[in-house]
Design a protein that fits this description.
This protein is an alpha+beta fold. It has 2 domains: 51 residues, no CATH class; 147 residues, PH-domain like. The protein has 6 helices and 10 strands, in the order E-E-H-E-E-H-H-H-E-E-E-E-H-E-E-H. A hairpin with a 3-residue loop joins strand 9 and strand 10.
Length: 243
């Protein structure tokens, strides 16, 4: 006869799985059992809905799975923003009209001087070589005034100023051009001035004083002159603090 106990070891014997050990999914904070991580068919369901974003490795029935924490990729560092170099700043367009009016006033002044000198010399009887000299000076004055539109055009095209991080630069001239560089640590103080002609055009001149001399930013709008003066003063103070 067949031993009845032998049927429990055959193919028809029911399969009884040992109790499942709890598995902790560290990355998501969800706790489940081994049966939730594996199916009776041996399919790993870790990472499926119910364990989204986590992975685990089962070491067999009854053995807790080793938790695996997925490291988040580091956020990329923002690219460094390159420093924009300072640019040459032009003067207001109406400064050209102011220059022309200023030259016209000077022209009239010198004509008056030459006329008064000629009258004085003629009254004193000094009328030999003096008229030739006076005529030559008057001719030079007339030619200079006649060329002022061209001079003003090239003077305005070249005249610029630049406010850098460590220095201030000023360009002037039209035929004989000059560029001056002034380190901020050499500046003693900065002020502004405004004569009658500048007030007529609502312009202001900025004067930069150093130990040896002074330099001028010819003419800016009144509000812009205040802003530039404050900016230069601030950078001068910062440059002297770094010494």
């Amino acid at each position: 006869m067949n031993d009845p106990s032998a049927k429990t070891h055959g193919a028809d014997a029911p399969h009884t799985a040992p109790p499942s050990a709890p598995i902790t999914h560290v990355a998501s904070g969800i706790t489940g059992t081994a049966s939730e991580a594996t199916t009776p068919d041996g399919v790993d369901t870790t990472g499926m809905p119910g364990g989204v974003g986590t992975t685990g490795t089962s070491n067999g029935p009854g053995i807790p799975a080793a938790p695996i924490t997925t490291a988040m990729p580091a956020a990329p560092r923002p690219a460094a923003t390159p420093t924009t170099p300072a640019a040459w700043q032009p003067y207001p367009e109406r400064i050209r009209r102011m220059w022309l009016i200023s030259e016209a006033l000077q022209f009239l002044f010198w004509l008056a001087v030459f006329a008064a000198t000629a009258a004085f010399c003629h009254a004193r009887g000094w009328w030999t070589w003096q008229p030739i000299i006076l005529a030559l000076l008057a001719a030079v004055n007339v030619l200079d005034f006649a060329s002022q539109p061209l001079q003003t055009r090239y003077r305005y095209a070249f005249s610029r100023f630049l406010i850098g991080d460590r220095f201030l630069r000023i360009r002037k001239g039209w035929l004989l051009r000059k560029t001056v560089t002034i380190p901020y640590n050499r500046v003693q103080h900065v002020d502004t001035k405004q004569g009658p002609l500048l007030r007529r055009f609502d312009l202001t001149t900025i004067v930069i004083h150093t130990a040896a001399t002074e330099h001028e930013i010819d003419a800016l709008d009144a509000a812009e002159a205040e802003r530039v003066t404050a900016l230069i003063t601030e950078r001068v103070a910062a440059a002297k603090e770094d010494l």
